Amino acid sequence: EKGGYDHFMLKEIFEQPQTIFDSLRGRLDAKKGTLTMGGIREYAEMLSKANRIIIVACGTSWHAGLIAEYVIEELCRIPVEVEYASEFRYRNPVVGPGDVIIAVSQSGETADTLVAIESAKEKGAIILGICNVVGSSIARLSHAGAYTHAGPEIGVASTKAFTAQLAVLCLVALKIASEKGSVSAQRFQHLLDELEQTSDKVATALKLDDQVKAIADKYKDARDFLYLGRGYNFPVALEGALKLKEISYIHAEGYPAAEMKHGPIALVDENLPVVIVATKDSYYEKVVSNIQEIKARKGKVIAIVTEGDQTIPPMADDVIFVPSADEIVAPIISVIPLQLLAYHIGVLKGFDVDKPRNLAKSVTVE
Ligand code: M6R
């Protein structure tokens, strides 16, 4: 059942080239330049006219929502807020007709997310569900939606569901943008091509497994980890830190790289591994300066960079090269080494990575 892998988590990490392909299949046709989203067709025009979009989710799905916020604002020019479902529900939020709520949930059964959308629906908002489990409660409660088609995820740590969420949320953003006319025909086509190529690029990134394992071995005894990224890669840093916490019980924090100088930099010394997602994008030059700030304080830098990068490698203690991609789809690829890092550290420390302590696969209590 684990398909020859030691754990479900590793099997699911390695399934990603296929699951990403499955999440796009029948929807995206880059050759023809078309995008079909059956589950939102009726609502496409309404979505494009939304005053604002509120994304509600928990955990890893919330991280996918944070990336979607940047993508939707960039491509659709609609204001987006991302809320922890539990916070959104209990603070009497201003929500009503004309608002669109996107609920992101692997299981479709997360109680916090479910009650949040129930109350928003009662107040007249339109609910769009992005779920993995077909027929789940959140999917049934939604007016419209798109399944992620990642297949059953058994490992408690979400991996393949996350990358499928990112792929589908990109499709939704592109669909709204084309309906609205807020993206040029050329950029639209370019992003279809980029999305189509992500599956192969993820397969390439998975070949780094041995290299990541060696890095895991080097840093497995660290007491704390810091994860940094900017822009589209900032939520990837949060996700990397969450994976490490869940699987290896090492304290880890994710931060926007530039925010470091406003506090967390006080933690940096020669014992602190700092994982920096620094792929080539519009934030790149700034991230290079953030790396210099860490090295000046003797932090250990583990950098995730784009193939061909010659600037960061001489500055970093360890480097992982990932295939180059448009910044909008880059998180789908840059998260792969972070999933592998958490997995290997957890296994090297002797923990049950498929069933980490204190956690359940689906959290059905508020
Ligand atoms: O099923 P959901 O996507 O709604 O679950 C949300 C979180 O409980 C989930 O992502 C959790 O944070 C995972 N254990 C992360 O690996």
UniProtKB/TrEMBL annotation:
Domain of life: Bacteria
Enzyme Commission identifier(s): 2.6.1.16
GO BP terms, alphabetized: amino sugar biosynthetic process; carbohydrate metabolic process; fructose 6-phosphate metabolic process; protein N-linked glycosylation; UDP-N-acetylglucosamine metabolic process
Gene this chain is encoded by: glmS
Active site: 361 (for fru-6p isomerization activity)
The protein's name in its UniProt record: Glutamine--fructose-6-phosphate aminotransferase [isomerizing]
GO function terms (MF aspect): carbohydrate derivative binding; glutamine-fructose-6-phosphate transaminase (isomerizing) activity
Main EC class the enzyme belongs to: transferase
A GO cellular component annotation in the UniProt record: cytosol
Physiological role: Catalyzes the first step in hexosamine metabolism, converting fructose-6P into glucosamine-6P using glutamine as a nitrogen source.
Organism the protein comes from: Chitinophaga solisilvae
Sorted UniProt keywords: Aminotransferase, Cytoplasm, Glutamine amidotransferase, Repeat, Transferase
Catalytic activity: D-fructose 6-phosphate + L-glutamine = D-glucosamine 6-phosphate + L-glutamate
Main location: cytoplasm
Protein localization: Cytoplasm
From-to range in the entire protein, with total length: 246 to 611 of 611
Assembly, per entry: Homodimer.
